[in-house]
Model the fold of this input.
Amino acid sequence: MTGATTSTGGSPQQAVAHRTGETVLTVVDHHGTPLADTEVTVEQTRHAFGFGNIGFDFLELANGELTGSAAAAAEHLADLYTDVFTTATLPFYWGRFEPERGRPDTARLRRTAEWFRDRGVALKGHPLVWHTVQPDWLLGLPLDEVERLQRERIRREVGEFAGLVDTWDAINEVVIMPVFDNGDNAITPLARAKGRIPTIRMAFEEARATNPHATLLLNDFDLSSAYECLIEGVLEAGVQIDAIGLQTHMHQGYWGEETMLAMVDRFARYGLPLHLTETSLVSGDLMPAHIVDLNDHQVPSWPSTPEGEARQADEVERHYRSLVGHPAVESVTYWGITDAGAWLGAPIGLVRSDGSPKPSYEALRRLVKDEWWTAPTVLRTDERGRVSVRGFRGEYRADVRGASTAFGVGRAPGQQELVAPAG
Amino acid sequence: MTGATTSTGGSPQQAVAHRTGETVLTVVDHHGTPLADTEVTVEQTRHAFGFGNIGFDFLELANGELTGSAAAAAEHLADLYTDVFTTATLPFYWGRFEPERGRPDTARLRRTAEWFRDRGVALKGHPLVWHTVQPDWLLGLPLDEVERLQRERIRREVGEFAGLVDTWDAINEVVIMPVFDNGDNAITPLARAKGRIPTIRMAFEEARATNPHATLLLNDFDLSSAYECLIEGVLEAGVQIDAIGLQTHMHQGYWGEETMLAMVDRFARYGLPLHLTETSLVSGDLMPAHIVDLNDHQVPSWPSTPEGEARQADEVERHYRSLVGHPAVESVTYWGITDAGAWLGAPIGLVRSDGSPKPSYEALRRLVKDEWWTAPTVLRTDERGRVSVRGFRGEYRADVRGASTAFGVGRAPGQQELVAPAG
Done:
């Protein structure tokens, strides 16, 4: 149809064709007359697909708490982060966010969120309701008081961060919540008394009422039939879920594409977007298969190894390819940018503790910013003044004679007129 | 309070005190004058607690299809059965009940149900909806046709047997139903398309509409959080369940009281009666622990052994003691009277293939008809003409001067007047 098109990769993008779209640009002069044979430079500026990671490592940097080489190292890590990731998950664990009752860490988290936003990274808050990492001062309070405080805490965080953090894990790990027995907490008895679905309703209704524009997730590590049954009950009860969160911590080894996609298929049948919220793959020894609660595995040292890093890079690439290839998946969030301070001390980072990128980082960057990305490309308009831009859905920019126009490539074919400055 | 009481066992009944009750009988003459120092013989005639077993082995006998030694052996087995069990689960597996479309085995099942009823045994039908043992002729039909036929089949069976079979497994094994992959069937696609809860609603609403007095169960072998989540969703959706069915096939070994009661506690918190619908314990080698679907274990021969029989007897006693000791449990159904033709060829029967009772049969009989039972007992009324009968809840009979009166011992203290014939 149009004389000039661009398409990054071609064949590799076939496997993920549902991720691409097409927008036709028509270059006109200030009279509206199409300009044939005119040079247009197009480039992608952002992915529509969510490539997320945790933002836990940047609170000090964002709040100016680092100096000297520590600050420089953090800035370097930040550059690696923002080059690949479009979304940061921020820690709102109640017990760490408000260890002393009435003194929440709001200001510090706000500065962190702003710091990310200023670098083009969207934010997600994790989690509003969970039975783990609870404040001590909640223990021993009567259940109705716990519920009142939990509701207030949801409204407070969602309200304070509205416009800055508009995606939330409204509630985390509900399947196990009422029967959780790996540590005293005030939320398990509440969930047991209320029941799972009323507890979920509490989380979603409070968050929704406070920020009607928020994207609210149910998130779980239990991907068995239990989660299916829970979701079906929640949907049947009329609680509005915006996306289903699926954790995939793979400290015990990559599950493989077949198992992963079969799991995704099971949850895709509810017609809701799927967010792979917590993905980790180790670049060292695997955790023994007999461990059930990953938190129970404590080792003094868990190094990243050359063989482990090669395996991790291969698995990261396969994992992302397969998930980006599934139409129901809207985002994949990796659970760690660096090994320094990683959960369980596991070498799940994409960057080593010394700040050097692992092969997994390079592999993921190559997918996100090369194979699935439209770098600046020079096109020429056809006789009707048109160029067709076909690429991964997201935000783009077109430059004509030094004037820049933003446009999008979406699910439906798009059209946009570019007014060229007088040449 | 009263001068004369009876109580079988005393101390052993303390552990199951919530199972007992008290009824005070007052013996009067035909003028209504209390008769002091008068002999009353009381005896229990039926347990309120449901001691069930499958009735699958008696279809031929009940329908007069046996002769000679086969008939005699079946009669002997029937005597053992009716001496202990108060409820029989009858097989309504659709694929066997109606292997040829339009020719259901109604008459034969009805005679079997009547045969049991005439022997004082109540009936339960199993199951109205299930994805296994499906008729071949259902395969390949469009889903809406499958649903229509499934609904008709529920109404037909529940309607035809109302008054005779008033307890039903309305639906069986829903947790796995939409993701079941161990055999083509028409119900899995239906459950997948409808969702678990609407499928459950279909089963309960059709059965309820047909027989409003029926006791309708949800029944499952998956006793994990998945079943909890399913139940919570069903209750939240407003589907009325009369009892929660819990399968406990223990071919891989007795779970022990602690595990069993912890499981029962998890399901007791919904405030519904619990029926242990399918219990089996082997009196031979255990099935290897790595088998997930018990149906996958096929062995040419699986004998009952002396050591196995001793173990089974011990486990049967512990199992029944612990469950009868839990207030939420209303019935325990054992899954097999005899090893002959037992599911999977496993020696789970309480009677050997040759018709001789195993030690487990004797152990269970001793509990049900001795320790937890009031045999004929002679009491004398006090100066106000009264005797107090304290025992396991159920039906009783009192004889005074050759006149017999039925009475009950229930949860609440009871009183009843017996008019003695002129002496």
The longest helix of chain B spans residues 306-324. Chain B touches chain A at residues 175-176, 178-179, 192, 195-198, 222, 224-230, 232-237, 266, 269 (CB under 8 Å). Residues 1-11 of chain B have pLDDT under 50 and may be disordered. Chain B is about 35% helix and 25% strand.
